[in-house]
Amino acid sequence: MRTRRAAEGDWPAIWPVWEAVVAEGETCMWAPGTDEQSARGLWMLPAPAHVLVMEVEDGPGSTRIVATALLTPSQPGLGDHVALAQLLVDPAVVNFGGGAFGPGGYGTDLASSRGVGRAAAEGMVDYAADLGYRAMQLNSVVAANTRLVALWRSLAFRVIGTLPAAYRHPWHGDVDLYVMHRFLPPGNPAPRVLA
Amino acid sequence: MRTRRAAEGDWPAIWPVWEAVVAEGETCMWAPGTDEQSARGLWMLPAPAHVLVMEVEDGPGSTRIVATALLTPSQPGLGDHVALAQLLVDPAVVNFGGGAFGPGGYGTDLASSRGVGRAAAEGMVDYAADLGYRAMQLNSVVAANTRLVALWRSLAFRVIGTLPAAYRHPWHGDVDLYVMHRFLPPGNPAPRVLA
Known about the structure:
Largest sheet of chain A: 7 strands, mixed
Structural class of chain A: alpha+beta
Oligomer: homodimer
Shape of chain A: globular
Order of helices and strands of chain A: EHHEEEHHEHEE
Number of strands of chain A: 7
């Protein structure tokens, strides 16, 4: 899997992922049914935001975007050393094989025991470290989504706060959101084009 | 003290308060020295944001803006029932009399034992309830600002999370931010002009 900064031209490939995750109504905040133009305005933010895409090979010389991430400073000014992160992973890929992404999938660059969601999350964390962020914050992890919470925990995030009844879940009703946090190691800006 | 929605024409009176609070570098995130045009863009946000001002009489038929607040949905879509709130109170007023605001101050509509900061905070909470918000969240309360933390606690907010080292304090170095939260009672929209 390759993580790179998105170009404007990537939007047509980002939108199906964005739409599919939001339609589920289980992992992120936007209203299911958000139209494409609004979605583009919410996601393709200008600097200091960084929009990332994670792509895998799905054939000879062909790639497919399976995830997208949005990094922004968590706070302006005196708090802009902390990245606020959002990650959307194509549900079709996450649901495929119960989190493992093996032979018959989109490429050969992934170990078969490793989930696409996990690989995408790792790519996002590494990218943020390379940008110079010193910590990463997730503001709205749906507490009822235990698989997602477990993923973040396994990547060294911890729950630093619980926002009670802050998420109107489509069938659970009002559920909690976790605020999750981890510090980041020093990055390695050299190998990336960060422009 | 009267809390009302700000009009564009209030900006010249809001700016000195904004600038003074930000210059201190102790209570909010924006970089000290933020210029007026940037400040206006950060604060005077369009709907669904609500910009409020708190004003007191400072003479016959004359009022003075002593605080300003910004209410936005804490999250879009499925989380927009929670208000994210920011409050800036003129330091000249907060520092006057150690929090009490008595005779010789800006007006006679305040009990002398009651701080301007507290009155402004109460006005903001009431306004958010009247707007229909079900809870209020403060995302970046500087933990080292114990007086401010105590104020919010006394207004029924509790610390639901601590963001470690998330604030580059001008002389303490990196200090924690608290995320604070409270539920709101049902509001009373009738008496206000909420347009």
